[in-house]
Automatic annotation (TrEMBL):
Transmembrane segments: none annotated. This is Cilia- and flagella-associated protein 58 central coiled coil domain-containing protein. Residues 387-677 form the Cilia- and flagella-associated protein 58 central coiled coil domain. It comes from Prasinoderma coloniale. It comes from the Eukaryota. Residues 872-882 have a biased composition (Basic and acidic residues). Keywords: Coiled coil. GO terms for cellular component: cytoskeleton.
Length: 934
C-alpha cells in the first residue's frame, strides 16, 4: 500500500506543494502568469524526468538482479564443468563450443550491463546537477517571496502610519471643534446677556426721562420762589437731556452692536452647524479609516497566518525532500552494493573463466603426456619382459655353461676360481637388485602416502582458506549491515530533529493563536466596558442638559429680575467698556504675539534650510565614505588574492624543500650503501686470488661442459643413431575425415570472425558514444564551472549591494525619523498658531496661558489705578445717586449689607482677618497660656 501511495504521489503532479505555492503566488500577484506557466512547465518536465529516471533505475536494478542470477547459474555450470573436466572428443566438441558461446553471450551481457550502469551513473550525475539547480531556483523563489512580503509590509507601513496620523489629526480637530463650539456657546450666552442688559438700561432711561418730564411739567406751575429751583432743575434737565442724548447715542450704538452681535450670533450658529457637519464628516471619515485600519490589520493577521501556513508547508516539503533524498541515498547505496557484488562476481567469473580456459588449454598437453606415459610404460613393461626372458635365458645358458665348465674343470683351476668369483658377484648383484626393488617399492609407498597426505593437507588448507575468505566476506557483510544501521540511525535522528522543529513550530503557532484569542476576548471586554461607559456618559450628559436647561431658565428669571437695578446696569456698561478696552489690548498683544511667532517660524525655516544643507553635506560625505569603503574592499580583495598567491608559492616552496630533503636523504642512503659495499669489497680483497683460481677452474669446466653438450647434440641430431627415433603408432585419417574436420574448423573460424566483426562494430559505436558523452561531460563541466563562478560573483555583488542598501536604508530611516519628529513639532506649532489665530478671530486670547497672564497684568494695572480713583468714583456715584455733594468719609458697614457678596470699600484701613488654620497646625505645639495675676 505504501508503494502504491508513493507511486500515486509521484505521478500526480497537480497536488504537489510546489505547484500549489506557484498557483497561490500567481493568484496573489507576486508572480506573473507567464512566469508561473514557465515554472509549472519546468517543474512538470523535471518531475517527469525524475519519474522516468526512478523507473529506469528500478528496471536496471531488476535487470542487474537477473544478470547476477544468470552469472551465478553460469558460474555453477562452469564449476560443474571444471570439476568434471571431460576429455575432448569429436562428439563432445560442439557442446564445448556451445558452452563457450554461452560464456561469450554472458560476457557480452555483462559488458552491456556495465555500459548501462555507466550510463545510469552519468544520468544520475546529470539528475544531481538538475536537482541542485532546482534547489537553487527554489531558494531564489523563496528569497523573492520573502522580499515581496517585506516590500508589501514596507509598502503598507507608511499607509498605516498615515492613517494613524490622520486619525490623530481628525480626533484633534474634533476636540478643537468641540472646544470652539463650547467657547462660541459661552460667548453667545454672554452676548445675549449683554443685549438684554442694554435693553433694560434703555427702558430704565426712558422711564427716568418720562419722570423728569413730569417733574418739569409740575415745576412750571410753581411760584417764583421756586424759580431758582426750577432753574436748577432746568439745568439738571438740560444735563439730563444731554445725558439722554448721549444715552440715546449709546443706545443706538448698543443697538448696532446688538444687531452686529445678532449677525455674529447667526454666523456663529451657521459656523456651529458647519462645524457640526464637519465634525460628523470627520467622525464618519474616522470611522471609515478605523474600519480600513481594522481591515488592514485583519489582512496583516491573515497574511501572518498564511506565512505560518507557508512555513509549515515549507517544513513539510523539506521533510518530504529529505525523505526522498534519504530514500534515493539508500537506493544508491543498494545499487552501489549490488554493483560492487556484481563486479566481484564478474572478477570471480573472469578468474574462473581464466582457470577454465587454462585447464582446457592444458588438457590436450596432459592427455598427450598421459598417452606418452602410457606408451613409455608399455615399452618399459615390454622391455622388462624381454629382459626377464633374456635373464632366464642367460641363467639357463649360465647353467649350461657351468655344467660345461664343470665338465671341463680340468681345463684350468684359475678360470674356475675366476668363474666362481664372477658367479658370486652376479649372485650378490642379484640380491642387491632385489633389495633395491624392495626399497623402491617401500619408497613408492612412502611417496604415495606423502602425496596423499599432501593432497589431504592441501584440501584442509584450501578448506581453511575458503573459511577465512567466507569469514572475511561475512565480516564485510556485517560491516555493510552496521554501516546501513548507522545510516538508518542517522536518518532517524534527522527525522526526530525535523519532527522536533515541526513540533516547536506548531506549538509556537498554537501559543500565537491562544494569544490572539486572549487579545480578542480582552478587546471585546474592553469594547463592552467602553459601551457601558459611553451609555453612562450619555445618561450623565442628558441629565446635565436637563439640569442646565433648568438652570438656564432660572438664570433668565434672575437676570430679568436684576434688569431693574440701575446701578447694576451702569456697572454692566462700565464693564462692557472695560471689556472692549481689554479686548483691544488683547488684540494688540495677539498681533505682537503673531509677529513674534512669524519671526520664530522664519527662524525655524532658516534653521530647516541650514539643516537641509547639513543633511546634503552629510549625504555627500556618506557617499564619499561608501565609495572609499568600496575601494578599500577592492584593495582588500586584491591583497587577499596576493596573500593567497604568496601562500601558494610558499606551499610549493615547502613542497620543493621537502622533496629536496627526501632526495638528500635518499642520496645519503645511497652514499651509505656505497660505503658499505666498498667496506665489504675491502674486506674480501684478500680472497680475490682464490676467486680467480675458482673462476679459471669454472671456465675450464664450462668449456668441458660445452664440448660435452656439443657432442650430445650432434649425437641427438644425427639420423644414424637408431636409438633416437621410433615408429609412431595410431590411425592415419583419410581425405574424407580431413575434409570434414577442415570444414568444421572453417565454420568455427567464420563464426569467430563474424563475432569479432560484431564486437568491433559494437566497440566502435560504444567508443564513439563514450567519446561524445565524455566531450559533453567536459563541456558541461566547463559550463557548470563558469556558471558557478558567475553565480558566486553575482552572489558576492548582491551581498555587497544588500549591505550598502541596508546601511543606506538605516541612515534614511534615521533621517526620516528626525524629519518626522521635526515635522511633528512644526505641525504642533502650526496647529498652535492656527488655534491662536482662530481664538483671536473669535475674540478670545490666543492661548490660555496668555489669557491668564493678561488677566494678571490687567488686574495689577487696575489695582494700581483703583487706588487714586476710588474716592473720585465714590463721590461721583454719590453725587449722581443723591444729587448732593459731600466730603464725609463713607462708612463701609453703613450701606452694604453683610449678606451681599461684594467687596467692602475699606480703602487703606482694612481690618486684619487671618486665614483659617490648615492641616499642618497639628504638628505645631500649642503655646501654654500664662495665668494672669490680678
Amino acid at each position: 500500500m505504501g508503494e502504491q501511495s508513493m507511486d500515486v504521489d509521484l505521478t500526480d503532479v497537480t497536488s504537489s506543494a510546489a505547484l500549489v505555492a506557484v498557483k497561490a503566488a500567481a493568484e496573489d500577484g507576486r508572480l506573473s502568469s507567464e512566469r508561473a506557466l514557465f515554472l509549472t512547465e519546468k517543474y512538470t518536465a523535471l518531475h517527469d524526468a525524475l519519474v522516468a529516471t526512478m523507473a529506469r533505475d528500478e528496471q536496471l536494478v531488476s535487470k542487474a538482479e537477473a544478470l547476477n542470477s544468470q552469472v551465478a547459474k553460469s558460474r555453477e555450470k562452469i564449476d560443474a564443468q571444471g570439476a568434471l573436466l571431460p576429455t575432448p572428443s569429436p562428439s563432445q566438441t560442439p557442446a564445448g563450443a556451445g558452452d563457450h558461446s554461452t560464456v561469450e553471450t554472458l560476457r557480452e551481457d555483462a559488458e552491456q550491463a556495465e555500459a548501462e550502469v555507466t550510463l545510469c551513473r552519468e544520468r544520475e550525475q546529470m539528475l544531481k546537477v538538475e536537482v541542485a539547480e532546482l534547489e537553487r531556483q527554489r531558494e531564489e523563489y523563496r528569497s523573492s517571496l520573502e522580499e515581496a512580503e517585506r516590500e508589501h509590509a514596507a509598502a503598507l507601513a507608511p499607509q498605516i502610519r498615515a492613517l494613524r496620523d490622520e486619525i490623530d489629526e481628525v480626533s484633534k480637530e474634533s476636540t478643537a471643534s468641540a472646544e470652539r463650539e463650547q467657547a462660541l456657546r459661552v460667548e453667545l450666552n454672554e452676548i445675549l446677556g449683554r443685549t438684554e442688559a442694554v435693553l433694560g438700561d434703555e427702558r430704565a432711561r426712558q422711564a427716568e426721562l418720562s419722570r423728569l418730564k413730569d417733574t418739569l411739567a409740575k415745576s412750571c406751575a410753581l411760584s417764583d420762589k421756586l424759580r431758582k429751583q426750577v432753574d436748577v432743575v432746568s439745568n439738571a434737565v438740560k444735563g439730563l437731556v444731554q445725558h439722554e442724548s448721549r444715552l440715546a447715542d449709546k443706545a443706538a450704538s448698543t443697538d448696532r452692536e446688538a444687531s452686529s452681535l445678532d449677525a455674529s450670533a447667526r454666523e456663529l450658529s451657521e459656523e456651529h452647524a458647519r462645524a457640526a457637519a464637519t465634525l460628523e464628516h470627520a467622525r464618519a471619515a474616522i470611522a471609515k479609516k478605523e474600519r480600513t485600519a481594522d481591515e488592514i490589520r485583519k489582512d496583516l493577521e491573515i497574511a501572518g497566518l498564511e506565512a505560518d501556513q507557508h512555513l509549515s508547508d515549507q517544513v513539510a516539503i523539506n521533510m518530504k525532500l529529505k525523505a526522498v533524498g534519504q530514500e534515493l541515498k539508500r537506493e544508491r547505496t543498494a545499487l552501489a552494493r549490488s554493483l560492487k557484488e556484481k563486479e566481484q562476481a564478474l572478477k570471480k567469473y573472469k578468474k574462473e573463466d581464466v582457470a577454465l580456459s587454462n585447464a582446457r588449454g592444458s588438457a590436450p598437453a596432459l592427455q598427450t603426456t598421459r598417452d606418452q606415459t602410457k606408451q613409455v610404460l608399455g615399452l618399459i613393461e615390454s622391455q622388462c619382459k624381454r629382459h626377464a626372458l633374456a635373464l632366464d635365458e642367460l641363467k639357463r645358458e649360465i647353467d649350461v655353461h657351468m655344467n660345461n665348465y664343470l665338465k671341463e674343470e680340468a681345463v684350468g683351476k684359475e678360470k674356475s676360481v675366476l668363474f666362481q668369483q664372477s658367479y658370486a658377484e652376479v649372485a650378490a648383484l642379484e640380491r642387491e637388485v632385489l633389495a633395491l626393488r624392495k626399497e623402491e617399492v617401500a619408497r613408492l609407498g612412502l611417496i604415495t602416502e606423502a602425496s596423499s597426505q599432501r593432497e589431504r593437507m592441501s584440501r584442509d588448507a584450501a578448506t581453511k582458506v575458503n573459511k577465512v575468505r567466507e569469514t572475511k566476506e561475512y565480516i564485510k557483510v556485517k560491516d555493510l549491515v552496521i554501516l546501513d544501521l548507522k545510516k538508518k540511525r542517522k536518518e532517524t535522528h534527522t527525522k526526530l530533529k525535523d519532527c522536533t522543529q515541526l513540533y516547536e513550530l506548531v506549538r509556537n503557532q498554537r501559543n500565537k493563536f491562544v494569544a490572539l484569542i486572549q487579545a480578542s476576548s480582552q478587546s471585546i471586554a474592553e469594547m463592552k466596558e467602553k459601551l457601558k461607559i459611553l451609555s453612562n456618559e450619555t445618561e450623565i450628559l442628558r441629565v446635565e442638559a436637563v439640569s442646565k436647561d433648568r438652570l438656564l431658565s432660572k438664570a433668565r428669571l434672575d437676570h430679568s429680575a436684576a434688569d431693574s437695578e440701575r446701578d447694576h446696569l451702569r456697572a454692566n456698561l462700565n464693564r462692557c467698556a472695560l471689556q472692549f478696552r481689554e479686548r483691544q489690548a488683547s488684540v494688540d498683544e495677539q498681533i505682537a504675539e503673531v509677529d513674534k511667532l512669524n519671526a520664530i517660524i522664519n527662524m525655524a525655516e532658516k534653521d530647516m534650510l541650514h539643516r537641509k544643507k547639513q543633511y546634503e553635506t552629510g549625504v555627500e560625505t556618506r557617499n564619499q565614505t561608501g565609495i572609499t569603503l568600496i575601494d578599500r574592499n577592492d584593495e582588500l580583495c586584491i591583497l587577499y588574492e596576493k596573500r593567497t598567491m604568496q601562500e601558494e608559492v610558499l606551499r610549493q616552496g615547502e613542497l620543493e624543500l621537502q622533496r629536496r630533503d627526501d632526495e638528500i636523504r635518499m642520496l645519503k642512503l645511497e652514499i651509505r650503501e656505497v660505503s658499505r659495499s666498498t667496506d665489504a669489497a675491502r674486506k674480501v680483497v684478500h680472497h680475490i686470488p682464490k676467486y680467480d683460481e675458482s673462476a679459471v677452474s669454472l671456465q675450464q669446466q664450462l668449456l668441458e661442459a660445452r664440448r660435452k653438450a656439443q657432442e650430445l647434440s650432434d649425437a641427438l641430431e644425427s639420423p644414424e643413431n637408431r636409438d633416437r627415433w621410433r615408429r609412431l603408432e595410431g590411425k592415419v585419417p583419410d581425405e574424407e575425415e580431413l575434409s570434414v574436420k577442415i570444414g568444421y574448423l572453417e565454420e568455427r573460424y567464420n563464426d569467430k570472425r563474424e563475432q569479432l566483426l560484431e564486437k568491433e562494430l559494437i566497440l566502435e559505436e560504444v567508443s564513439a558514444l563514450s567519446e561524445r558523452l565524455q566531450q559533453q561531460a567536459a563541456e558541461g563541466r566547463a559550463d557548470t564551472l563558469e556558471l558557478a563562478k558567475r553565480v558566486n560573483g553575482y552572489q558576492a555583488k548582491i551581498r555587497a549591494i544588500t549591505r550598502r542598501m541596508m546601511a543606506t536604508v538605516s541612515e534614511l530611516s534615521m533621517y526620516k525619523a528626525s524629519s518626522m519628529k521635526l515635522q511633528q513639532e512644526r505641525d504642533e506649532l502650526v496647529e498652535r498658531i492656527t488655534e491662536a489665530a482662530a481664538r483671536m478671530d473669535a475674540g478670545l486670547a490666543p492661548t490660555e496661558d496668555a489669557e491668564r497672564d493678561w488677566y494678571r497684568l490687567e488686574r495689577e494695572r487696575l489695582e494700581l489705578e483703583e487706588v487714586p480713583t476710588a474716592a473720585r468714583d465714590t463721590h461721583q456715584t454719590d453725587d449722581k445717586s443723591t444729587g448732593i455733594r459731600t466730603t464725609a468719609e463713607p462708612r463701609p458697614n453703613a450701606y452694604v449689607p453683610s449678606d451681599l457678596g461684594i467687596p467692602r470699600p475699606y480703602g487703606g484701613m482694612a481690618p486684619f482677618k487671618p486665614s483659617e488654620a490648615g492641616s499642618t497646625m497639628r504638628f505645631i505645639r500649642r503655646p501654654a497660656p500664662k495665668e494672669l495675676l490680678i
